[in-house]
Fold this protein.
Amino acid sequence: MLPYMDLADGKISTATIIDDNTFEKQDFILVKLVIHLYNNKEWVLPTELITLPEPDYQLAMQAITLCRDQQFDEVVIPADQET
């Protein structure tokens, strides 16, 4: 998703992601979840989530839990020099 993200400004070009739709079906479900958690402009149905392979399903559930608990408030994106 990096081509669609501006990490310095903390912005994601969500409309471009949907318009381009260059992802595999299962990846696109996760992408829609990212957009939903970012700005609520996409929806992911529970039936889409349960069709994900187990590792992706676990990742989706962790992301939902982090957002629900607002644990992203303390997340800091490291600068290129720190990575």
